[in-house]
Design a protein that fits this description.
- Helices cover about 25% and strands about 25% of the residues.
- With about 350 residues, it is α/β, with parallel strands linked by helices.
- The strands form 3 sheets. It has a 6-stranded mixed β-sheet.
- Helix 6 packs antiparallel against helix 7.
- The two termini are about 45 Å apart.
Length: about 350
Amino acid sequence: MIVKDVTKYLEKIAPLHLQESYDNSGLQVGDYKSKVKGLLVSLDVTMEVIDDAINQQCNLIVAHHPIIFGEIKNVTKSSLIGSIVFKAIKNNINIYAIHTNLDNVPNGVNSKIAEVIGLKRKKILLPKQNLLKLVVFVPESHSEKVSQALFSSGAGNIGNYKNCIFSSQGEGSFLPTSGSNPYKGKEGRLEKVKEEKLEVIFPDYLLSNIIQSMNSAHPYEEVAYDIFKLLNNSNTGSGMIGELEKPIDELEFLNLIKKKFHVAGLRHTKLINRPIKKVAICGGSGSFLLKNAMLENADIFITSDYKYHQFFEAENKILIADIGHYESEQFTIDLISEFLMKKFTNFAIRLTTVNTNPINYL
């Protein structure tokens, strides 16, 4: 098994196209063709994590947070990032980051948080509007072949349903001209064919694959098709909202969160004397989702990295709970390892024993 085998699999789960514009997910240090001797999963990449990889004989680190975010002008021991990258290269360690792309998938970071809390009826808090619709006209004889090609390339997925397509029958006509090579008919003669109009939706980042697959399966020399941008929400995006099985007292719920996430210091807004039933969450820095949580009538919004003045934005209408960045994302290590263990059953997946939380509490 080589590094590319691992990254290709992870990018099927969390495509790089779904990462935010500021992010830098993907292979950051190493060689795609490098043979994987051992794999270590971590939330962050620190010098201690590099040492852990060396001690456990792992030459691939899969981390949630990228070690390289912005432009890097040099790799020297004089800077923290440079020294980490330098040591990784020196010890032939590959580093791969799966960050906001894993945040934005429905079975990603926020789904794991929801699982820990015990939320039901989950949905994305701020869905992406990245859906396209393909309408293509196919002769009846090739309708099934083209449909299967579209499904294989990722089209036709709606929520928990696959292979979703709509077809309608009609008649198409065309007149082959000089230099054409028609599938059916002759040059200079109008041809009429019984066709099916196929309609499927898919996320925009799959567009090139969809078109390529469609053209490969389609018998026509010139394929007639349309692409439409949809305003429908997709099943990818930021944050998540769900419900508890039964309402719980807000102070009791805060103590429950504190226990489940091992929070040493939980910051929250003023209690609003309302039972907690509907819970909005966002792993990491999620203050930008507060309005969405309020629009969904959430009783509480759980996230991290809240600033002093941002707490006022709750306006006594919702309870904000800042549980800490590391604390909110700590179970991402388990999430990544669970994905990897499903695929690579005969390979040891190790979880780092290093606590990378840079924040300490008295």
